[in-house]
Design brief:
- The protein is mostly helical and 284 residues long.
Amino acid sequence: MKLTKSARDLAKAMPGIIVLLLACTIVLMPMVFMLTASFMPALDIMSMPYPWWPKTWKFANYLKAMAGNDGNWIFIRNILNSVIVSTTIAVTTVVLSSMVGYGLAKFRFKGRNAVFMVIMGTMMIPFETIMIPLYLIVVKIRIHDSYAGLILPFLMNAFGVFIMRQYLVSFPDQILDAARIDGCSEPKIFWDMVFKNSGPAIATLAVLSFRQQWDNLLWPLLVAQSEKMKTIPAYIVKFTAEKHTDEGAMMAVAVIASLPIFALFFFLSKYFLGGSSVYQAGKE
């Protein structure tokens, strides 16, 4: 019996499909565990074998996650802190990195490549090596335990400059030259033509910058000294370190902390996935 062309194509693709299904299963299993465990009593979570479907739905885990072990509801304020800090840094990183990347990609000046290499070189410096000097500066100018102290050191980064520069290298010079001939100013060219037509790169950088700051634990743990200024990662550390912590409530905290990242990714997924070509954009 002869197979049709579509059946033969499916048979050839079957090994790849199986590998992809296995990879998806491995990636999704921790997320499924986190979600189902957030609705279980602690005893069910710790039981072996693990029941992948809750026998008893315990919605009180989410109430305890929001209220905290001491019932002070500080988690809501910590969520707000993370939203403010991560959103502000994502916006400033996108705008400032776009400006610098545009300048390095489209303006020819002496030492341009040297400037770009110096910026790239800063990516090789671990944050831990500059963390203490940076903290001393923040304390000296008295912006510790504040939004300014959490935000100012991360207004932009070298990785953002790299992404935007590589993307804008391939932006057509003819369009820019035509706009200059028509009398457009450089700020207008940048905003109306360059920035508004860099959606994939902007979305990619926005998602990565937001996620990096949303997951940032070390700097907020050092700078945010009061409970009201802590961010979600710092709250999770405190919540899990307390005695008699409910494992179900711990999973509920993790689910709540993950929701904004999933929402942002799905909202920008069309542009984010389109930005997969960003790393090839420097090829002229």
